[in-house]
Amino acid sequence: MDRVVIVGAGPVGVGAAILLAQRGVPCLVLDRYPEPYPLPRAVHVDDEVMRILQEIGVAEDFLRLSRPGLGLRLLDARHRVMAEFRRDSTSGPHGYPQANMFDQPDLERLLRARMAALEGIEFIGGAEVFAADSSSVRYRLTSDNTEHTVPASAVLGCDGANSTVRTLIGAQRLDLRFAERWLVVDGVCESDLEAWGGVHQVCDPRRAASFMQLGPQRYRWEFRLFDHEPLLDVEPLLSPWLRGTGVRIVRRAEYTFRAAVADPWRSGRTFLLGDAAHETPPFIGQGLGAGLRDAYNLAWKLAADLQTPGGAPDLLDSYERERSPHVRAQIRLAKVAGWAMTGGQDRAAAVRRVVLGAIWRLPGLKGLALRSTSPPLRGVGSGRRAGTLSPQPRVMLDDGERLLDEALGPGWSVLCPDGRAVSPDSGHRVVRVTPELDPSGRLRRWLRGRTVVLRPDRVVHATR
């Protein structure tokens, strides 16, 4: 079997390589830079994405480097709280805190170490890809300017918003009509600011802003820039938050937050993942998570295709069909959230304050705002829950308490209520959900007496 060639060694590319290697698929990872990008970028993943990091094998180490986010506070221009939406900081339905704040270089170090520990993955840094098709990739080493050609069983373009692979396959970048300039500042303070442990969003049309703590004495600020406005002096922007505390600026950069999606995501056996396939505004914290969802969705399908005589073309066809509508739905939500929190003029801001206050007073709407469950995937299997992600409570195995995914293993599985007969398809692992296995009763309450078939990515394929 030729190797899968992955272009781009950010979290999505390295994550995809690990997921494939764990399924016995050899990979070659190429990146134009020899070392990981050293400065912070992504800062949040939810509990669904934590399950992917669990599958990759870095969740426990990641928890030691991250901190639970308590939720979201909406502030007015004077930093008075208009509304507060709290998240579960202990364990949500997927076994992890619903919001997890972190410094991206920390995650990248964990992923690179995990990649290096696995057999079947080769990494080449300083490699600029200039040609690719479904059977080979050509790249140039920046160290000596030599050109190389490698055969490929498939090519994954994980090379970011300015993707070379996207250009090479002729995919279009569809503008979804959102572009805002923001100033992003990361800093390390001399002492802890004793701020509330969630995200603060300043809903001020004159200067929308965000503030969050990433770790001990590590903080991020984001400030909206208007069109043609010059890059701002950081000191007066930070002073209301610092209150005299000294800060060392780690990064100060302007970004344009965009909404876009590639069309198509695939040409033959070449696929786009992460920012190469889609860009989303950061207002619901799903940018990196969307890319890792791409990797998890595609990895098990590509492994099955490569390891099945005659391949599994229907599985490969389902990658874009499932992921593109899911991403578009999250982009729409991010755009709406961005407008609600930062957009509008003075009159709109006044109306927005009244509406947010009303939402805070209505438990039903508040619960909807707090829900972290992502949209179901379309066109998956059969039954009411098809396309949704199963929960992951702790279960009791012979060797002690474990999270559910550890009991399910890497392949297809069947969750069967105790006492119900089941004839599983070949290769499906049957897990009988007894009171002994499920002492909390959470899994039995979710099953409601039904038998559920789960795909390797824990998405419900069918209920019976």
UniProtKB/TrEMBL annotation:
Keyword entries, A-Z: Oxidoreductase
Organism expressing this protein natively: Dactylosporangium darangshiense
Gene3D superfamilies to which the protein is assigned, alphabetical: 3.30.70.2450, FAD/NAD(P)-binding domain
Name recorded for this polypeptide: Bifunctional 3-(3-hydroxy-phenyl)propionate/3-hydroxycinnamic acid hydroxylase
Domain FAD-binding: 3-332
